[in-house]
Write a structure and sequence with these properties.
The protein contains 1 helix and 4 strands. It has 48 residues and is an alpha+beta fold. Strands 1-4 form a two-stranded antiparallel sheet. A two-stranded antiparallel sheet has the order 2-3. The chain is elongated. It starts with a strand and ends with a helix.
Length: 48
């Protein structure tokens, strides 16, 4: 996973990311769940 530089546009922040995996390690459903959990954790940190 590679993080980019976060940017603010109008009233929102954006964090570009690159996420690569090998299909023998996980499938798209696992990757989707991982990214949703990551998004939730980032949003929870922001609310503190």
């Amino acid at each position: 996973m590679i993080w980019g530089k976060y940017r603010k546009k109008l009233f929102r922040y954006y964090l570009p990311e690159a996420f690569q995996f090998h299909h023998t390690q996980m499938d798209g459903a696992h990757a989707g769940r991982f990214l949703e959990n990551l998004k939730k954790e980032i949003n929870d940190l922001r609310k503190r």
